[in-house]
Amino acid sequence: MSKLPHITTSIFSVMSKMAAEYNAINLSQGFPNFPVDERLTEIVSKLAFENVHQYTPMTGYPPLMNQIAKLVQTSYNRIIEPETEVLVTAGATQGIFASIQALVKSGDEVIILDPSYDCYEAPVLLSNAKPVRVALNDDYTPNWETIEKACSSKSKMIIINNPHNPTGKILTENDFLQLEKILSKFPNLLVLSDEVYEFITFEEKHISAHTKEFLLNRCIMISSFGKSFHITGWKIGYVVAPEYLMKEIKKVHQFLVFSVNSISQVAISQYLDVVDVNLLGKFYQGKRDYFQKLIQNSRFELKPCEGTYFQVVSYANISKNDDVTFCKKLITDHSVAAIPISTFYSDHKDQKLIRFCFAKDNHTLESAAEKLRKI
């Protein structure tokens, strides 16, 4: 008998498989297709001949853990203890899974804000806990009144994703004030803050949970080197949490993967000495602006994009099909792959919206836009 009877193949896998079958331009799955920084590949080339191919310590390669603490301090003016508050994980997804498995127990409830990334619900269900899905407003701002009503004495965790996938929305100062009010009313409630796109914001600066004093003792932070450095296939992320929570997360982590890829950890620890994460926002803003310009004369309606490397558009002026059907036809009839937004909702709410990934080289964006403008 299945533990996850209602969960089928991920929509990301479905659309990427179709894109390959129909030789379509894949703007669905969120991974860059342009070259990795040569400084990083040069580091990896040298390391291949060095003694860095055995297990690292379970919690992570110590120099990388020190670099993470330094990155958090320089980015958010927060001082953390590498040995007790940092964990290197096999991607952000593994960090999320380990955190939920460690801290959420049978009978607990976890607040998930829809549209939500699909890796949140499964570990909740596998903990024999209850996911409580709460929809964001139609403009993707949180409805804190509705969120508070969804909380109860059984609520153990609320998951926030900032910047938000799939919508590109970022949280405001007022959002954190409202979250603080909820936490004051529910003292046992923890926050899992998924900030894998933390360095990819545009006109407005990203506000991290790292900067909120009231959150620090009750928050698990999830970050991703894969997203930040265009190396999604490396599957390297990290978790920052207070020691009393991290002790429990490490217990799960050690039996899930034990330790993470050694050469990747060493390479990133050295790369952090030469890369400037503050340039990422400007780089991806250029990608966003270019893609928006390319399709602004199409029949698609652009929605606001404040962060991440995803652009949501409406196709309401083009078709009455549901968004899953539209995305499949977009592949078969027009050779471009996208992701339907309804799949991020528990009730499959369909607003005729789809998501494109613009983390692609300009030739790919131009080729895709040429096809989209003809629809």
UniProtKB/TrEMBL annotation:
Keywords: Aminotransferase, Pyridoxal phosphate, Transferase
Record-linked InterPro entries: Aminotransferase_I/II_large (IPR004839), Kynurenine-oxoglutarate_AT (IPR051326), PyrdxlP-dep_Trfase (IPR015424), PyrdxlP-dep_Trfase_major (IPR015421), PyrdxlP-dep_Trfase_small (IPR015422)
Any one annotated GO CC term: cytoplasm
Domain Aminotransferase class I/classII large: start-end pairs: 24-372
Signal sequence extent: none
Cofactor(s) needed by this chain: pyridoxal 5'-phosphate
The UniProt record lists the keyword Transferase: yes
A Pfam family this chain is assigned to: Aminotran_1_2
Molecular function as annotated in GO: kynurenine-oxoglutarate transaminase activity; pyridoxal phosphate binding
Annotated family: Belongs to the class-I pyridoxal-phosphate-dependent aminotransferase family.
NCBIfam families given in the database record: PRK09082.1 (NF006569)
Stated name of the protein: Aminotransferase class I/II-fold pyridoxal phosphate-dependent enzyme
Organism listed in the record: Flavobacterium hydrocarbonoxydans
